[in-house]
Amino acid sequence: MMDRKMDVLCIGMALVDSIIKGFNPEPVSASGYTAASGTLNVGGEAVNEAVAAAKLGMRTGILCSLGQDPAGDMIINDLEKNGVDTSLVIRDPGRSTPVTTMFVNDDGTRKSVTNLAHRYNFRPERYVQKISDARAIILGSLFRAPFDDADIIYDVLSYAKSKGILTVADTKLPNFVKMSLDDVRPALPYVDYITPNEDEAKYFTQKNDPEEMADVLLNYGVKNVIIKLGSKGCYFKNADTAVKLDAMKIDAVDATGAGDNFVAGLTTELLNGKTIEEALKFANACGAICTTAVGAGTALKDYDQVLQSLL
To answer: What is the tens place of the pLDDT at every residue in 40-96?
Structure first.
């Protein structure tokens, strides 16, 4: 492959997570509640993936849209601190940077509250020429803005494959726009790796078994399918092979961003020429490490840390 300016370009949502741990639903006054902690962390699939990939040694860029507001400044500062190229970030004075409220349970599971700022669709296909600067792109995530428009998904993926770029598509359950696999059928053959979690795969395939989920996605033309199974590990399948890996044993604090760190680790090792099993083990470790601290970009430090966790 010709030399390119970036290893990984992450495209998608950028936001700030307001993370509340230990929320007590019993009010202490007519309108007051308590929680164990409340923190602000940069987030969004594209940001989480970009920060993780940069920490893992990848030359990483991001294509996203932010408001001209303090939340947007916070995201830019964090991206640049972690070595992510922000030259493709769009700053739009006419919109607000999305802020998500996250309620995190003691076991690391969480629920989130989004708002209409998360619906903004910034038309990444208008910048496809910049995609050719990357060896791989990560779409974070299919079925959420900006990838909740079938034409946008097709234009970005088809252009990337025309340039010989590795395409990795994470997924999310639809929120403001309801979509199905049939809605994006023409684009799916341009996906090299798709990485839904178990709940997302159940929703989109209407299957309960990971192998059957993978078969549905393969039949839509996706080249390689990875079902992220959380504490149960992950399942991989393509036309030639299937692999089931157990998760690392770890005490989870906050699962926010674990899937995004998994995807960044997977893409890193694929670009490093590792086998799929090696890449999956590394990705599993990245996801597990992420859960050991509050916030998607807190616990993962660098490539060597992940290697040490695998010893």
So the answer is: 989 999 999 999 999 999 999 999 999 999 999 999 999 999 999 999 999 999 889
| 260 strand-pairing partners | none
Nearest in space to 70 (alpha carbons), one of 126, 16, 148, 134 = 16
Residue 239 C-alpha from the chain's centroid: 24
Residue 97: CA count within 13 A, CB half-sphere: 25
Summarize the confidence of residues 296-308 as an average pLDDT.
94
Peptide bond into 31 cis (omega under 30): no
Q: Decide if 282 contacts 266 (C-beta within 8 A).
A: yes
Tens digit of pLDDT for each residue in 281-295?
Answer: 999 999 999 999 888
Please check the confidence at residue 1 and state whether its pLDDT lies above 70: no
Report the chain's C-alpha Rg in angstroms.
Answer: 18
Map out the domains of the chain as residue ranges: 6-24+34-309
Q: Say which residue the tokens 């199974």 belong to.
A: 229
Which CATH architecture group holds 6-24+34-309?
Answer: 3-Layer(aba) Sandwich (3.40)
Per-position DSSP letters for the chain, written without gaps between them: ----SEEEEEEE--EEEEEEES-B-S-SSSS--B-SEEEEEEE-HHHHHHHHHHHTT--EEEE-EEESSHHHHHHHHHHHHTT-B-TT-EEETTSPPPEEEEEE-TTS-EEEE--GGGG----GGGGHHHHTTEEEEEEEEETSTTS-SHHHHHHHHHHHHHTT-EEEEEE---SSS---TGGGGGGGGG-SEEE-BHHHHHHHH--SSHHHHHHHHHHTT-SEEEEE-GGG-EEEEESS-EEEEPPPP---S--TTHHHHHHHHHHHHHHTT--HHHHHHHHHHHHHHHTTSSSTTSS---HHHHHHHT-
What CA–CA distance (Å, rounded) separates 259 from 194? 12
φ, ψ at 208 (rounded to 5°): -110, -20
Token pair listed for 262: 């998994």
